[in-house]
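Summary for the funding panel

The consortium committed to producing paired sequence-structure records for every protein in the target list. Below we show the first two records in order, beginning with the earlier of the two.
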Amino acid sequence: MQIPPFSLDEQISEIGDEIEKALIKVFRSGKYIGGEEVASFEKAFALAIETSYSVSCNSGTDALILALRSLNIGEGDEVITSSFSFFATAEAITSVGARPVFVDIDPENYLMDLDLIEKVITPRTKAILPVHLFGQPIDMDKIMAIAEVNNLKVVEDCAQAAGAHWRGKPVGSYGDVGCFSFFPTKNLGAAGDGGAITTNDFDLAKTIRELAIHGMPKRYFHTNIGYNSRLDSLQAAILNVKLTRLNKWIERRKAIANNYISQLSSIESIELPSNNLSNNSFHSWNQFVIRVMDNSFVKNIKSTSDDVFDNTNRDLFKNELHRLGVNTIIYYPIPIHLQPAYRELGYTEGSLPITEKVCSQVISLPIFPELKFVQQSYVIDRIKEIFQK
């Protein structure tokens, strides 16, 4: 049996007919940029996130860039964020001319260590950019309290967390702006790139909308140097179909996560996310990430995979699962602060020890709404088999 880390084919079998009808409607309208589908999605998404405004754009990366630009963050400014994230989190900060300042993560939940944020605030600090990693919300009450005391803006990176909540309120509704990605493998994914920015501020929404269309408040009149960053009507039509199912799909993901947690909790060699969840946190389970601990592995397993970054227990575990037909992904093998592109920032190995350790241990197990119980059982049985050798 082969188990993929995710499967978009299975999803299409459920909603394919409805998607086709929506796409044909767009084709027949002749309106491929903007139009009814985009306006409808923006309205529905704002309602889902419980914000006054939602502005769609080309990608989650663009959402971050547009958000930072709208807050006048640029050359000489600093933005505090996590190094344990996808590269775009920091890349967006750099793209507007600012400097990312990284803090280490909490080893219990892999999110920014909130006790470290105020220690790195300087006169140049303009914003905090918290990441709701893997669909798990960070404590937004504490983030907002720190921001208020220090007069900082808050840009939520919700790229992996559509549908997640903190204390009953959707992520993306706490900060000055929330930034979402609709990359195909996300909880809410398009059939290509797509993104959105949410906010309760009319002026910010207006600025973001203008920046996304070449800094153009009205046709051929440009007040800013902007971008060409629009969600096309075809992607909006697909997202309109999928948005109505998001909560149901998250419930399916939650059931899979609970099954993994229940069945794997007896294995001392791995750390499960079950121990990391706050009672205030509603996880959207974009990924199911475990840690393979350093003292845990089977000595006679040899690595033969080209997709191995180091000869760690995690990498050997990944290779053995692959041999057994269970395909996994590592989010993320190299922390951002140690990427060659950020060498100039001066971080070295040991700068963020918890982040670096976690990057050598984490691995994401298959999780998607259509993952059948028999497939889940196969994943669980193979993991037990590995650790019982």
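The next record, for a separate protein in the list, is shown here:
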Amino acid sequence: MRINPFLFILAALATLCVTSCTSPEEKRINQAIQQVMDEFQAVGVSAAVVKEGQIIYNQSFGYKDLATQTPLSNNDMMRIASISKSFTATSLMQLVEKGIISLDDDISDLIGFQIRNPHHPDVPITLRMILSHTASIRDKENYSTLDNLNPAVGGDCADSYYEYKPGEGYNYSNMGINLAGAILENMSGIRFDQYVQDSVIKPLGLHGGHNLDAIDTTKIACIYHRSNDQYVESNAYASVTHRLPDYVMGYSAPMFSPTGGVKISAHDLATYMMMHMNYGELNGVRIISEESAKTMQTPVWMKQTPYEDQYGLCLYEFVDYIDDERYNQPGQYPVGHEGNAYGLYSVMIWSPQDKWGIVAMTNGITHIKGKEFRQTIVNAIYEACIKEAK
């Protein structure tokens, strides 16, 4: 669906879906977000701010659906792309705590077929490696199937691996996290989407999940990408019901995209974030142990080039991200994850030391050369309500 950009601009200016707010702090945040929206011609933005263990701000702006000009609300959900990886790792840490698996297990033993980098056939690839993107597993065009790693299907699968020794290099791998989702399923005996729903999402009182058919689709915001200077709706959501008859437990989990398939609101993502900020517990509900939470937040790989992340287990440190020198030195880096796919952009970031956190997501933007939406909106919110209060 193509939308005239001039009509979009007029509609965005006329529409501001926010709850009434009167405090100076809320007004500053609203103004900061609106300025970023205007700059990037964003379709819609949802944001939430956490301070001192509470969600102190949650507002939504712009549109959920451009065609119907439906405003975006705080209850609406978007696909959050790679932030979903942390849900997969959180679930696996529960199995680690139960002694069912270990982070240093050979994943061949966990998935049921041999997985080896043919350039280093004697080096086991561990669960810790795939969760930290150090396993030397390469993303191919299609990382939604394990066939690319299964010798019974692809032979030695040499083109699915980098040449460096597993554990001694870093390359972001969606294939690796989809594999991790299959391991969760294989070792728990519960279908991937159901495990995450029952063991992470529901205990925290959240709404959302991986399976589109198991959530309220009336709350799903459309996702848009730019094409020929117009917004076009992306195919970001797909039902898998028709594929379930052929589902193979312990193998078909990539169908639900463990690497990027969660749909959730900014409010509920902020609630999930607070659990990690509290090292695994929220409101008396413990999802993972303090030790597991700290393990996830501790880098396995230290950034060596501008193109790498300081990556733990599906969470990483944001180096040189906040426009405040305090948070640009070791021991002070914020933690979290970003996501982007189909035109959506999402960010979940918090300070373990100072206990503030920001969640922001958009369902479509116009790109600006040399400027990144997520970092821009995080810093705008930080300036509006966190920096001055510290």
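Regarding this second record: The two ends are 45 Å apart (CA to CA). The first helix runs from residue 5 to 14.
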